Amino acid sequence: MADLTCQLGPLKMRNPFVLASGVLGTSNRLLERIACLDIGAVTTKSCSLNRRAGHANPTALDWGAGLINAIGLTNPGAKAEAENLAAILPRLHEEGALLFVSIFAKDVAEFGETARILAQVQPDLIEANLSCPNVADEFGMPFAAKEDTAAAATEAVKKAVGDLPVAIKLAPNVPNIGAIARAVRDAGADVICAVNSMPGMIIDARSASPVLKNKVGGISGPALKPIALKCVADVARAVDLPIIGTGGVCSGVDAAEMIMAGATAVGVGSAVYYRGVDVFQQLPAELAAFMDEEGYADLESMRGKAIL
């Protein structure tokens, strides 16, 4: 049977599947529930320095070809989140899952302070979300939009967390994601997460208005997969860093495609909506079956094959 163990930089995972940020990572109970399934790592919902209530409903919609959401980064704030995670971390490790903590901020200094607080929990990795597409009206242009701002945020987080690995979550809607990947690599990033959801809008013609209260939101699910695959391939060509390929993965074959594009690990989010939480038990078996059928002994033999 194919070997699914995954080496994400200094981190060894039992398989390449990672619960993506924003999906079920909202409470200790949910994190523990997912960790009990066959998953390599779980990522918390993105956390800010101070508490956020998020956006008013409606905040999410299945529009047929995918999902769109504008939850608004609801979270309890860094100090409360640190207390919550300190209580659950040993249990996650007992179940064999690593803990990735996602953060975001309104400025570079706040990125550093938020990272410092949450690093005290000693998670396995800090993920800096530089690319959330549905709070731009509040925070301005995402940090991931430009090389200099992405690098500045990366440097602040790295300085704050010491030896903890740092992943940088990039945006799909940029002119040259490879150039931004190089900028964050040079600023100290250990891992790249590619990509966040794609900004979009769904309009209800009968009411002549956007469906979401926030008007715009992030497109995820199957509609995002071709975009994510290209972004992963572009990043893989640009930098020699581990990549968490995220966007539209709903099956083991989808995961294989992501790895063939250059991903090291595979983020899974919207698949929970389509297939339920048992998807985290099903995906490793599906990926292993595909690899056995096609003669791949391990992930490394498949990685980047489509872009060589």
Shape: globular
> Termini separation (Å)?
25 Å
Mean pLDDT: 95
At the fold tier of CATH, the topology name is: TIM Barrel
Radius of gyration: 18 Å
Based on secondary structure, the structural category is: alpha/beta
- Number of helical segments with 4 or more residues: 10
What percentage of amino acids are in beta strands?
Answer: 15-25%
The neighbouring-strand order within the major sheet is 3-4-7-8-9-10-15-16
Provide the fold topology:
Layout: E1 6-8, E2 11-13, E3 17-19, H1 28-35, E4 41-43, E5 60-62, E6 67-69, H2 78-94, E7 98-103, H3 108-119, E8 125-129, H4 136-139, H5 147-161, E9 166-170, H6 177-186, E10 191-194, E11 198-200, E12 203-204, E13 209-210, E14 217-220, H7 225-238, E15 243-246, H8 252-260, E16 265-268, H9 271-275, H10 279-294
Parallel strand pairs: 3-4, 3-16, 4-7, 7-8, 8-9, 9-10, 10-15, 15-16
Antiparallel strand pairs: 1-2, 5-6, 6-14, 11-14, 12-13
Helix pairs in contact: 1-2, 2-3, 3-5, 5-6, 6-7, 8-10
Main traits of this protein?
single chain, 308 residues, alpha/beta, TIM Barrel, 8-stranded parallel beta barrel, 4-stranded antiparallel β-sheet, 36% helix, globular
